[in-house]
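Database export, one record per block. Field names are fixed; values are copied verbatim from the stored entry.
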Amino acid sequence: MEKLNLTHKRAQAWSIDLIIASIIFTVSIIAFYVYTMNSTSETKEEMENMFYDGKLTGDALLSEGYPQNWTSDNVITIGITSGEKVDEAKLENFYALSVSDYNKTKSIFNTKYNYYFVLNGSISVNGGSVDGIGEAPLDPANLIKITRLTVYKDKPTTAYLYIWE
């Protein structure tokens, strides 16, 4: 009889281990599910914020800016157009300002995100050409591309604005 009683106690210990393991497994699954749901919504919200900032930055860039003939000393709003065409003097001012003080341009655009502005083809600056204005994205985590149509050198041109973290 004593042997039967010893087997019964071992079975009870095994049952408690199984219950604890089941509880740990269930809590882990619930934690993973909650984390997955929250991280997806955070990423979606961040992408929406980036798209919103990109849209505002693109609209500002393809405006006349303020004041109308702005320079790096008096600029309030960076804009590169005059009469709905890209003004090469404003484009050069924008390039010079982005090279000398990139963070100031981000502040003027009122964005925390990095940007890179490209016109289809190359951009003429001070007799030379550049691929784009701003910091080129090397390996961004999230990247938004805003596309606009404008006129550059009397030809319809596509303007691209890349926004990333």
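Remark 1: The longest strand covers residues 143-152.
Remark 2: The chain is about 50% helix and 25% strand.
End of record.
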